[in-house]
Write a structure and sequence with these properties.
With 84 residues, the protein is mainly alpha-helical. It has one domain. The two termini are 26 Å apart.
């Protein structure tokens, strides 16, 4: 299912969202995560970016991110199960 750009741009421009450029530190951390946890490369980059940027919460619906113990992860399906 394709999401139209008109729906995505407001999200990207929200005050709560910050786009973070990659750096050498992010690539190096992603490489370590990939080797240590077996994360796929895009997932390792996401996790490394969150940690290097000092994110307070990483929201996802992919439980694979629980492999990164230093990453503060919230799994959406866990919350949905609690409220239903």
């Amino acid at each position: 299912m394709m999401i139209p750009c008109s729906k995505i741009f407001p999200l990207l421009n929200a005050n709560e969202v910050r786009l973070i450029p990659t750096t050498t530190a992010i690539w190096e951390q992603a490489t370590r995560f990939r080797a240590q946890t077996g994360l796929k490369t895009p997932d390792a980059i996401h996790a490394a970016t969150a940690l290097v940027a000092s994110s307070t919460l990483f929201i996802t619906n992919d439980v694979v991110f629980r492999r990164v113990f230093s990453l503060p992860v919230a799994i959406l399906s866990d919350f949905i199960e609690r409220i239903t």
